Amino acid sequence: MINIEYLIDRVKLVTLQPKEAWAKISDEQIDLKDFLLSYVLPLVLIPTIASFIGYGLIGLGSYFKVASFSWGLHQAILAFLGAFLGVFISAFCIHKLATNFGTQVSLDNAIKLVAYSYTPIWLAGVFYILPSLTILALLAGLYSLYILYIGFVPITKVSEEKKTNYFIVSLILVIGVSVLVSFVIGVILISAGLQTY
């Protein structure tokens, strides 16, 4: 069951006061299924629905319209699956890397770290309604990386001397995972007949 008031309060806390958010979130225990359904899913639906509308109905440019149901469905599926797979694979990498940097991070905590960090980029997914504004979502992605950085030590409990290396390696993996997941899903969707235009 989605508690809208809780969702809005948590989103505001994470995006507007990330340091305070991580101090509060770091010791919280999550029920993974509940967390995915009550926090991640509603936010992931923002870029999913916006992508379908933007690429399926509105299209690109003011002088010409390039939109199709197939393209909208392609972008919506890409946004939805990319978000969930990105969270899980990135979290798995952070979880597995932990011992190399002298710490232990449960998979649940790694998922919590990645998912909360993705909050701004999911919110900015609303800009996909007008595909020409997609750059604003990418800028929100930079803020997501900042939130990931702020939350890294509180969640992973990594030592000060190892935090930079752990974060950089994790960041490379998170970005790499996002690119790879998007590419693979895109290829599968195109091969299934969902064209990109």
TrEMBL record:
Transmembrane segments: 39-64, 76-98, 110-129, 135-155, 167-194
Occurrences of domain Yip1 (ranges): 15-179
Topology in membrane: Multi-pass membrane protein
InterPro entries referenced in this protein's UniProt entry, alphabetically: Yip1_dom
Record keyword Membrane present: yes
Any single GO CC term annotated in Swiss-Prot or TrEMBL for this entry: membrane
Subcellular location as annotated: Membrane
Name of the protein this chain belongs to: Yip1 domain-containing protein
Organism: Labilibaculum manganireducens
